[in-house]
Amino acid sequence: MKNYLIQNATIVDEQSKWNGKKVDILIENNFIKKIAENIIAPEDYQLINYTNLHVSPGFIDVRANGCEPGYEWKETLESLSKAAEKGGYTTVCLSPETNPFVSTASQIEYILQKAKNLPVKFMPVSGITKDGQGKELTEMFENFKAGTNLFFDGKKSISNSKLLALALQYANDFGGKIFHYAFDKNFSTSLTINEGISATKSGIKGTPAISEEIIVARDIHIVRHLNIPIHFAGISSKGSIDLIRAAKKEGLAITCDVHINNLFFDDSVIQNFDSNYKVLPPLREESNRVALLNAIVDDTIDAIASDHSPQNIELKKVEFDLAEYGTITIENTFSMAITALEKFCTLSKIVNKFTIGPSKVMGNESIKIEEGEKVCLTLYQPNQEIFPGAVPYSSLSSNTPFRGNIKLMGKIYQTIYS
Q1: What DSSP state is assigned to residue 29?
Q2: 173, 274, 307, 321: which is the annotated catalytic residue?
Q3: What CATH number is given for 4-54+373-417 in this structure?
Q4: Is 344 helix (H, G, I), strand (E, B) or coil?
Q5: CATH assignment of 59-362, given 2.60.40.10, 3.40.50.2300, 3.30.300.30, 3.20.20.140?
Q6: Is 307 a residue of the active site?
Q7: Digit-coded pLDDT (tens) for 230-271
Q8: What would the pLDDT profile of 272-299 be if each residue is shown by its tens digit?
Q9: How far apart are CA 143 and CA 230, in angstroms?
């Protein structure tokens, strides 16, 4: 790895004594050697000095679909690493929704081996139940020993309350973390979009927010009974936020994340039938989106997830009802977050949801920008305009609504990660 001198950089790291200060950062042999004003550049060090440069700990994505193995025509770990690096990420948690579904230790070992030389750290996530079917628990401790402490059944709820309780207990015994997606499939005949005015206008059947909120309420009762942590993945409704906020105030060990699409868009965009707005959970009314934005401000939401979901064009360029869910987001998630939240909160609060918050969600110690720490940095300019789609995406897929002259704020320059 090269040695660097980063010049005139504003540090954005709530854990660091340098937070908010403009300094130079000397990086040598993969470690931060010195932080100070006006460091004299040693010979043969690469100088980094961008206009209005900001530096934070490396961004962490708690959810992205790597597609490999089984769907390599949509994305590979190599192409995802390039896309994630462009998005400012140094660590990415991989959803188990591959083919086969990640359920065994050997599958986890395969992913870790495949990813070991890539420029981004990939954390494989194991299924909670075998093949994500919600019937029989995976060998959770064996999967933990293979290299993951994270367990998730993808975008399926475990309907059997006793089974979820057992999973929480088993994981807690060895420090594992259960991620759970809240959706009661028996409450709705359609997953396609949110039930509301936009669905009525478009003539498409929708799913009501209560289908999420019922599972959130149930899971909170289970956590209260067991006194064991749970993480809610992809919260999308005001009702869910209200339940989680109250549970946190009660002192329950609950964390949650929001997908960037639900934070950025409301369901009015689906009226043009562009399948690139077809995501899970569905985009909801503006009132729900505002509730999510406010939940970032008061820390009810702990992390912002890309939910990067590549789909090939044949699965998207069809009738809206038949199209697959998801968009590619990982290259623009941070910029989307800054653009959506600029009038709601500080840059430091937004960065928290890409750094300290995700570390908490994963049960890890947060990386700090301090002398002596191993280098793991994201460099960016928060106020610079970018036009997504003006340059080619690194993802193998192109399922994104960001085309043409759509403008976002926040430019990622690079990551430095050993």
Answers
A1: T
A2: 307
A3: 2.30.40.10
A4: coil
A5: 3.20.20.140
A6: yes
A7: 999 999 999 999 999 999 999 999 999 999 999 999 989 887
A8: 888 999 999 999 999 999 999 999 999 9
A9: 18
